[in-house]
Amino acid sequence: QQQVKQSPQSLIVQKGGISIINCAYENTAFDYFPWYQQFPGKGPALLIAIRPDVSEKKEGRFTISFNKSAKQFSLHIMDSQPGDSATYFCAAGYLYNLFFGTGTRLTVIP
Amino acid sequence: SQTIHQWPATLVQPVGSPLSLECTVEGTSNPNLYWYRQAAGRGLQLLFYSVGIGQISSEVPQNLSASRPQDRQFILSSKKLLLSDSGFYLCAWTKTDMNTEAFFGQGTRLTVV
Question: What's the domain count of chain A?
Answer without folding.
Answer: 1
